[in-house]
Structures are given as structure tokens and as C-alpha cells.
Amino acid sequence: MSTRIALEHRTAYTFDRPVAAAPHIVRLCPATHGRTPILAYSLQIEPAEHFLTWLQDPAGNHLARIVFPEPIARLEVKVDLLAELQPINPFDFFVEEGAEFWPFAYPQELWAELAPFSVTDAPGPRLAAWLDGVDRTPARVIDVLVAINQRVRAAVDYSVRMEPGVLDPEETLERGVGSCRDSAWLLVRILRELGFAARFVSGYSIQLRAPSGIPPRDSTDLHAWAEAYVPGAGWVGLDATSGYLAAEGHIPLACTADPATAGPISGATEPVGTHMDFSTTITRVRETPTVTEPYDDETWAAVDAFGHAVDGRLQAVDARLTMGGEPTFVAADDPDADEWNVAALGPTKYVLGAKLARRLADRMAPGAMLLHTQGKWYPGEPLPRWKIGVHWRTDGLPLWREPRLLADPSTPGTATAADAERLMDAIVAALGVPAGLAVPVYEDPVAQALAEAMLPAGEPPELETPVPDPDAPADADARTALIAALDAGRGEPAGWVLPLHRTAGDETWRTGVWHLRRGALFLMPGDSPIGLRLPLASLNWRAAGVEPELSRFAPHPALAPAGSRPPGIVTMPGAMHPAVTTGLQNGAAGQRPAAVTTDTGDTPLYTAVCVQVRDGHPHVFLPPLPDFAHAAELVGVVEDAASATGLPVVIEGYAPSGDDRGQRFDVTPDPGVLEINIHPSANWPELCERSAILSEEAAALGLVSEKFALDGIHEGSGGGSHLTLGGATPPDSLFLRRPDVLRSMITLWQHHPSLSYLFSGRFVGPTSQAPRVDEGRHENLYELEIAFNELDRLTALEHGGTPPPWLVDRTLRNLMVDLTGNTHRAEFCIDKLFNPRSESGRLGVLELRSFEMPPHPQLSLVQALLVRALVARCAAAPYHAPLVRWGTELHDRFLLPWWCEADIHAVTADLRSHGFAFDDRWLGPFLAFRFPLLGEVASDELRLELRMAVEPWNVLGEEAGTGTARYVDSSVERLQVRVDGFTPGRHVVVCNGHEVPVQPTGTPGTVVGSVRFSAWQTWSSMHPTVGVHGPLRLDVVDTWSSVATVGGTYHVSHPGGRHYDTRPATGEEAQARRASRFVPGASGLIGFTAASGRPGEYARTLDLRRVRWH
Which residue intervals define the domain Transglutaminase-like in the entry (predicted)? Predict the structure, then answer.
């Protein structure tokens, strides 16, 4: 995030005639205490006939004294400097213990030195009145300084004042407006009156245009501010013009006790007419890519044009490609909460998920139904997770017509149990069901009594042999009587249930009466929706049959328009809309007779529509239905009932079965994130539109896709952004029609590890959630080559055609797995390609799981566009080549920024060779984000650079109480060490006394290696006895002179020992924390011989855990 800028400041005086000039003093040299690195500086004076001498004044400022031996007609002073602007945290300092709270007294030994900066005159009436308004209650010194600075900013408006000199504080307060130097001098006087030593500072102010557009352009100018001396912190800059503390945009030039001695230029000439001209310009020389504004408008226009071009190439090969995704978000205002770090569920995640689902439905799926249902249930979690599905019809007609009739379950409602009965009566009438078939359902008093009986009462009794109770019921009749007595006190109904069933191909609904041993319907214990707690085992001696799923490959008749009602159906009183019919006649309203009533004793009936009131909202539970048309009809019936009763409802239960007549997306919780399973897009414009809508609506709710670690590391959401590739329908899937494309992509990814590591999160490696095909199982490549040969043989048997989809799936399924054989946790997940066991798994979908949610929506689109281009490339020209046995090179080489970048550029070069004009510069933000710069230092000949590298975090052994969490060893980190100007045989790179094994890169003079080290000592790690290796002392040693000529120290945490309690609020603060951990400076060791730490298996890595610690 650093920006190198060139600043030019020119001041010219033109005289009416040549005049004699006294010596001039120029105070335009950056002060030594400035924290912004100044890389180059020059001062040019005209006329050329002059003598220039550099000196320091009593305050330590660098002054240029210029003597003109001859009369001059023109005087020009020109300053050029090169500065590296990187975020600086102005609050990054300590305060001595005795000065933490104001008021305080300076130590006696400091007072004599600070005396010139404490001199003040008696305040005038306005200044005295201003000082009277200062709260004198003891407070933290930094809080006092900030409050005073902002109060001065509020009291004095800024204006440009060309007159020389500085206004008296009385006049500044009277006017209420002043220049920067007026406000600065006022602040200095106020600070001195309050007991602070303060000085006046003149310097340059640099403001760079931010992604927000404020300021609108880069600018620089001469500026003035104040500095207060705080014991322990030193001089702290306070800019009264802005109300902020001085940071990287403030370059001090002269710091003095009085403004009169801080002017940029001072001197005298003979009396003469003078014209002054000045200018300040700033130019960005070098700018590292940033994820906050990854692409400018021109670059994004080129990306967009390339996206359209890729669409054309996909059409040319008949790819019929659709692309969906699983982006994830976190809450910006509560980044430390468990639900936004490790926990799947939390107090705010459901509320935000419900709001986001409704907002997305309004913009992306008008006429959609929101379905609140049960999500995934992982081992170790007490209850299933929730899921909010947004379902709609693909024919453009509404599935749900009135959004106002969908209640928001995240807010409390006012409905009562009587409303549930009313709503069920309306549903019964709409279906033509005889009255009385809908029955009340109750919580089970027997289960409640048993649970209460299991609780201990009073003090725990002494252990003794149980004595039979003579009053206990001894026969079946007595037990039945006891249960009947309990049932008599069952209380109010928990809801209402209507047995309802419909199989695929049925023309009407089937209902009936459930015959129950206890006479009434009692729920199983729990707090789930009543539709999930029906006592199905009590309904019939026969087991429920398994109904076949409808094939995703079979054609489906069109749906009827929502709201059509066939003749012969009973109309609900006051209904606003007629009921929805099955509609299997190409969109015409079909005939739907009244529901058929059957005796469930003869024909088992195990499904039902249920109504209950929870949290003040009527909830309607939909039964499982194998046909989307039937589900659409029942949804229409429920909406008509809600309209007739005026009751907004919450729809829950089973989701409509998927086919090409319906579409959906889901909002679900995942550990630490909120996940949106977005529906597939058929082309690049759709993908861009949906990405923009998603990011806008998420941002409106305070959801973001980035966060910062305590140490300043910039991360994405922490969740995945997996890409799902398929077709509009399963038969359209390119990977089922052209399995050679799937083989090409697997081979391409195996050849280029950068595709696995550049876009992934911090959790990579063989035990991650998306291991590569060659990670973990050493024999996997051997077996995969056999599978590829089988695909070739099967294709030949089909005479050049395509092998059956099930055979393609079975050939690859057991190889696209993780270490445990899990088909879902693999980089290439073919779980839903063509699963022989389930129709819902036969979607023709390939899921790429090695993609993390990046921090900007444009980055999401670019990585998706790269994948689209690679699919088109593989479809146009098969990529078949022997698989590479990378061995230890896989991690030793491709986890480092240099070789990862080289490898991804090889991928884009291959694309360009096939006619895809992918620009390497589009990947710059990914490289900067994945491998942030940690520090750099240069001498005359050498340059040392440190970047973060990727480190696999291995899963640890299972421990008791871990639940769904699997602990990983996150204590190990890896850095890349790069040296430019390196001479083999002369230079050696040393870290903590051990030689770093660096390797040539192909660029003359540039070598790269890495250091692996234990950064933290966590309570559970792979090597609990290995201590922390930080700080890392790195030097480049010149063996010819035995001197370390360039080097620096990298600290794992703050070098001064500060402990951060909160995460960085902005990217600038995060960058400042990272930058503070690298301290440039070679050790200057003489006569030093490095101890070798080179292990045999990893040619580029020094692993400090394997060498003896010094």
C-alpha cells in the first residue's frame, strides 16, 4: 500500500532591477525526526552565481545559507524530493508512567531543554476565556491532546492568507478564521498554557486521492502544525487545520519555538518592486497494487472487454458454461465476535442473513419465495444450522406474488394460536379438503413428565439398592390409564397438521385421517418446527416407502401461471387470488379436482402441511414434494390463505425439488462467516451484475469481505468463495459432454501450483479443505494416470463419442478426495457431477474450492474470469500431458511469492498463446494481497526485501471436546527473503546466525530463499517444546570483507512491546502495524562465519526449528 511520490516545490522572486541581496536562509530540508522515508533530495538555487553552506540551527533544523556575490534580478528556489508514503499510525508510541495522565510535570532533567518551548505571555481575554472552557479533570494525556486539537479545529475555520507573518492568538480567535500557521501558533500557545512543551512546525502536507474520492485529487502544499512533547513518546504532531495527528502526509522542515524562525525562506534585498511566483506539484512515481481500489476505470474497461471476448470463445466451443459461487461475508462492526471468527451460529448472524436474503430477493428474484429451513448438521453441533432459501420460477412469472405476505422471522410478531387455526382452515378450504381433517398437535406431556422426573431433587441421595414401588402400574391397562390421565392435561395446541401427500404424476392431492393409539397427535420432544417433530413411527405399522426422485435429465412440462384457478374448486371467502394449479398443459390452467381422502390405515401417509405460531409469526411447514410443479401449486395455496386471512407468514420446511423450471440461492451460516450460495450466471454481464448487487446489498447491512488480524495482516472474509461450474441443465454440462475438458483442467492445475495457492486462504496444504490432487497421497498421481488412460480407452470404445456420465464420475470420484476420502473436501470437487446414488448429486457441476473470498468484488470477478478463460482454452485445445512429480518442490518453491508469480505468469502466457489477451497486471492486486511486503532496505549495491509467504497449517490430532473444530498448527510462519545485487561466492544471507539457502531466479543478481520459523508458542502445536524464534535478524554478509553490509530485524510483534487489544480499523492502520515490525539496519558484524542451516530436502528453505537455537 506504499506510494512513492516525487514532490517539486518552486518559489521565484522577480525584481524590477538587479539588486544587492543579503545572505538568505532556506529552511526546506526535511527534518531528521520525520517518519516518512525521504529517498532523494535536491535543492537548486538560481542565479548560479552563489555560495551555499549547510548548517544546523540550535533546534537541529537543517538550514541552507546562500550568499550572492553579485546583484541579482531573479531568485528561484527549487526543491525536489522523493518520498515513500506508507501508512503511519500516529498513535504508535508509549508514554512514560508519570505522564500517562494530564496534568503532569516534566522531569527536572528535561525541563531545562524544554524551557524554550514552554515560554508564553499572559493570555488575552479571548484566549483566557477559551482556556477556561478546558476540562481540567485528570485524563489520559493522548485523549487531552486529541480533544484540544479538535476544539481548535472547531473554533478556527481554514482560509488561505497570503499576508506574511502569523496572527496573534487573540486576533485568530476574534476572527474565527485563519491560515494553517495561525491555527498552529494558536494551538502552540494553548498547549503551553496547559503545561505542555510545544513548538511550531512548518513543512509539506501531502494528500493523496483515496478510493472514496476524498480528496478528489493528489495535492501538496506548504503547511504548518504544532508538536507537543510527551515523555516516552517524544514530539507528537497535532494538525489544528484538520483536527488530526500528523502522519505520513506530514513532512516537517523546520521546528522552532517561535514561528518567526520557521519561515521557508528569509533574507533581505534593497528596496525594489518584487513579483513572487510559487508552485507545488506531486507525481506518483511508483504505486504498489492495493485491494481497496484494485483497478482504475481504464483497466476495468479492459477487463470487461476481455470478459465479453471470453464469452465469445465459450460460445464458439459450445461450452454452455454457467458459473455460480459461494461468496462469504463478515460483520464490519463486530470483527472479534465468535460468530465472525470460528462459530457457525451467533446472536446477529441470522438477523443479518434474513435481511440480506430479502434485499437480494427484491433485486435479483422478483416474485420469489423465502424459505426458512434446516441447514447442514455437522457432528459435534447440538442442532442443525439454519438456511434461508430464495426460490423463484425461471419462466418470469411469480412464485410468490405479494412480498408483504412474507413475514420477517428475525423480528417479533403479534400473531396468536387462534391465528394458526384460522390460517389452516383457509388452506383446507383452498385445497378442497373436508373440514375436520386438519388436527391440532400438542407438546407431549408424557415426555415432559419423564424429563422432569429425570431431574434430581434436593441434595443428591445416598446410593442404595432401589426398592420396587408397589403403586407403579403393573399391567398394560394401568399404563394406558396413566398416559390418558397425563394426556388430559395437554393444554393448548402447539399447532395444526393436515396430512397431505402427492407423488410425481398425481393429478391431485391425497389426504386422510391418522389413526393414533393415544387419540391425539403429540410431538416428539424438542424445539424444532413441528413438521420435523411429527411422531411418524406412531402412524402406521408399515415403514414409509422411498419415492424415486425425478430425473434431472428428463424434460419437464411448463408451469401454469400463478393465480390461475380451474373450475370446480371451492373459492375461499374474501380471497384476493385464486389457487395455483398443477398446470401440466404448457402453461394453461389444468383441472384440479378436490383432494382425495383415503384411510391412512390402509395406505400409509407420512407427510403433512403444518401451521404453528412462533415468535409471533404464523409458520407454514411445507412437506417434501418430488415435483416442482406440485410445490409451486402448494405455495400458491398458502399465499391465497395468507391473503384471505391477512396474516403474513413464514414459509419453512422442505425446499421444492430442483429442476430447470425453478431457481434458487441460499443464505447460510458457516464458521466465522455468512455464506451466500449464489445461483449460476450464464455469461459475463450476468456475473458482473450479480456480483455488484451482492456487494452493494451486503455493504448496506454492514457486511464486508475483509478483515484484519491483530498483527495487521490483511485477510479476506476468512471464508471461501468457491466457484461452481456447470450448465443451465445437467445435460448441458460441459464436463459431462466433454470429460476431456475436466481432464485438461485437472492436469493444468497440477502443472501450475499457483492456481492452487495464489487465490486461496491461509489454510492450505494436505489437511486443508481443498488439498491439491498431489498433496497428501503420494500414489495419487500414479492412480490418476491410470484413470486418465481409462477415460481415453472408454472414449475409444464409444468411437470418439462420450463415455456414459456415470462412468466418468466413477472413474475420477475416488481420486478427487482428501486424505480421509472425503469427496467434498478436495480442490476439484465432483460431488455433484454425476453421483450414482442420488439425483440431487447429478447436476453436472464441478466445484473449485481453492478460492478464498477476496476483499473487493472486482477481485472476485477477475479470478472468476481467469477460470472462465481457462475453461475456454481447455475446451478449444485439450491440455493433455504427463503429470509432474513435484515432491518437496511443491511447497519449497511455489509457496514463495517469486515463483508463485512466475508460475501464474506462465499460465497467462499460455492463455495469450491461444488467443486470450489476459494482462498480467490484472494479477498485481492478488500478489500484493497474498504476499504483503514486510520490509525492505537497500545500500549502494544491495537490496534486501522481506515478503510474507504461504505456510501450510497442518491439522493436529483429535482432542476431547473439539466438537466440529479441528485445531491446526498456526504457530509456524514462512518469509521470503529476496536479495538484489547478489554476487555468488561473495555474499551470504544470514538469519539468526544461520545461512539462508538462496537460489538464483533467472534474473541476474537476484536470489530468493525462505525462512520457516516458530512465530508463536500456542498451547497446542505440532512441536510444543520448540520455542519462539523471533525476532529474526537478517543480514547480507560480504564474505570478502566479513562485514554485514545490509540487513534488518523482523519482529513477530511490535518491536517496542506494545500489545494490541483491537484489530486495525482500516487498511492504513493495518499497514502501519506491519511496517512497524521491520527495523532496517545491518548488524555490521566483522569476521563472522554463518552456521549452515540448510536441510537436504528443501533447497530454498531455512527451517529454524531444525537447527540449534543460538
Answer: 172-242
